[in-house]
Amino acid sequence: MAHIIVIGNEKGGSGKSTTSMHVAVALARMGHRVGAVDLDLRQRSFGRYVENRRAHVKRHGLDLPIPDYRPLPDLAPEDIPEGANPLDVQFSTVLSALEPECDFILIDCPGAHTRLSQLAHSLADTLITPMNDSFVDFDLLARTDPETGKVLGPSIYSEMVWAARQARGREGLKPIDWLVLRNRLGTQAMHNKRKVGAALTELSRRIGFRVAPGFSERVIFRELFPRGLTLLDLRDMGEQSFSLSNIAARQELRDLIATLDLPGVKVDF
Q1: Which of 9, 61, 231, 254 has its CA 20 to 30 A from that of 86?
Q2: Which helix (DSSP H) or strand (DSSP E) does residue 181 occupy?
Q3: If you average pLDDT over every residue of the chain, what do you get?
Q4: Are 15 and 252 in contact (CB under 8 A)?
Q5: Inter-residue contact 87 to 72 (CB < 8 Å)
Q6: Rounded CA gap, 75 and 90, in Å?
Q7: Could you list the residue ranges that cross the membrane (predicted)?
Q8: How far apart are CA 126 and CA 41, in angstroms?
Q9: pLDDT digits 0-9 by tens, 218-268
Q10: In which residue ranges of the chain is pLDDT below 50?
Q11: Domains and their CATH numbers in the chain
Q12: Upper half-sphere CA count for residue 12 (Cβ side, 13 Å)
């Protein structure tokens, strides 16, 4: 069965689509068959990212690996069982089509609590939660005392992940490997960054996730999206391949893939 990687965060602007695309392309470049699903039915940032890649590759006659992106299919009324939720059926249909053809399936969830997002989390073998590295986004994971910063308890999102874990346990499935990704880390170890790090470490022990550094804030990410490119494509394109910033960014991606410790994956880029 395909290993399902869910990118989940109920806040926007945390780098979910950038993370999804870079993980998907990295796996594809290492020879794995990668499927892609975007459950943000309004924004579709991940889906548009893959579509931009397809268009750029076709336009310039390039040979770049492309994740097998599938939108939720349109279904005729007679294809939906009586009493079933149409979105559930669409989602299960696309997963059933991808699973026998893929080693990994990347699912990008919307920045909001939706039925599809909840369902995707219950299917996750690996869950990646990108968050901006500040207390502004920390409440995605937990409630804190505004005076002391002490963790008071898990957030609604964390409780949803806990419920997904329980559902998997009842089905006899492996526990979700949950990785919280600290995106937009500052280049200096500022006092607030250390406080966020300490709070995440404390919370990780309480609700069971791993913490890893993600991607620093870089202009290059905004420039890559319209062409559907990733950091790993720059060398093939002959663009800025050896700038110090891009070398550092490639190392961040390499560290992320290694930290994920996915089955059958040996980092070789």
Answers
A1: 9
A2: strand 177-183
A3: 89
A4: no
A5: yes
A6: 7
A7: none
A8: 22
A9: 888 889 999 999 999 987 776 655 577 788 889 999 999 999 999 999 998
A10: none
A11: 3-260 (3.40.50.300)
A12: 8
